[in-house]
Specification:
With 215 residues, the protein is mainly alpha-helical. It has 9 helices and 5 strands; from the N terminus they run ααββαααααβββαα. Strands 1-2-3 form a 3-stranded mixed β-sheet, with helices on both faces. A hairpin with a 4-residue loop joins strand 1 and strand 2.
C-alpha cells in the first residue's frame, strides 16, 4: 500500500472512531456515482462551461465521476482530498454560480494556490500527469511539469470530476457531501500529519468539522 492508500486508511479509521458507518461496498448498497445526467439543465450547463474553461475538446458533455472516497449508511459522502486535488485548475471549477454555497470553496481556492508545489511533487510523473483518457478529454498535455498551452490533462480531469461531485451533491435531494483536505487542521492537528503517521483525529472535533463542511 502506497502513502496515499495509507493516509486514506488512517482517515477511515478516524471516521469510524467518530461514529461514522462507512460502507465497505457502496455499490452493493445502491450508492449512485455522481453524474451530470440527472442534473438540471442550468447545473449541467455550468459543468460544461467548466469543462470548456479547462480546455475540454470533446463534443459530448455528459460526465460521470468515479466512486466516492467514502459513503456512509446515512447517505453522507465524504471526499478525502490529498495533494493532487490542489492546483491551478481547481479554482476554475469553483467559479460556477452555485459554488459560493459550498462550505469548502474558500479554503479550497486558497489551498490550490498555496499548495500547488506539493501537487507538482506528487503529480508530475506517469498517469498522474497525463493518461490516454484525460488527453482525449483535453487535447493532450505538455511535458511533465511544464505549464504551457496544455499543462496537465490529468490534473484538469481530476478537477472536473471534483466539480461533478460538487454539483451532484449540491443539487440532488438526499445527497450530502463533505470534503476534507489533507491541508486542513482539525482539533489543532494537521490532517496530513495525522494521517501520514496513523494518528486518530479527535472524534468530537472531526464530527464538528465534517458538519461544518457538509453541503
Amino acid at each position: 500500500m502506497g502513502k496515499h492508500g495509507k493516509r486514506a486508511s488512517a482517515f477511515k479509521a478516524s471516521l469510524e472512531a467518530a461514529g461514522y458507518d462507512v460502507l465497505e461496498t457502496p455499490r452493493e448498497h445502491g450508492v449512485a456515482a455522481a453524474t451530470t445526467k440527472q442534473l438540471s439543465d442550468e447545473v449541467r450547463v455550468s459543468i460544461v462551461n467548466v469543462y470548456r474553461a479547462l480546455g475540454g475538446v470533446r463534443d459530448d458533455a455528459e460526465f460521470t465521476a468515479g466512486v466516492w472516497d467514502f459513503a456512509c449508511s446515512d447517505g453522507l459522502f465524504i471526499e478525502f482530498d490529498e495533494a493532487l486535488h490542489f492546483n491551478r485548475y481547481r479554482p476554475v471549477t469553483l467559479q460556477t454560480p452555485w459554488s459560493s454555497e459550498l462550505p469548502w470553496a474558500l479554503d479550497y481556492s486558497g489551498y490550490s494556490g498555496a499548495m500547488e508545489g506539493m501537487c507538482l511533487k506528487d503529480g508530475k510523473s506517469g498517469g498522474r500527469w497525463a493518461s490516454p483518457s484525460s488527453d482525449a478529454m483535453f487535447g493532450g498535455s505538455d511535458a511533465p511539469g511544464v505549464f504551457g498551452d496544455r499543462g496537465s490533462s490529468r490534473w484538469k480531469q481530476r478537477a472536473l470530476y471534483d466539480a461533478v461531485r460538487d454539483a451532484y451533491a449540491w443539487s440532488t435531494p438526499g445527497a450530502n457531501l463533505a470534503r476534507i483536505s489533507i491541508h486542513d487542521e482539525i482539533g489543532g492537528l494537521s490532517v496530513n500529519w495525522a494521517t501520514s503517521h496513523g494518528l486518530l483525529l479527535d472524534p468530537l472535533e472531526l464530527r464538528e468539522f465534517i458538519e461544518s463542511r457538509t453541503a
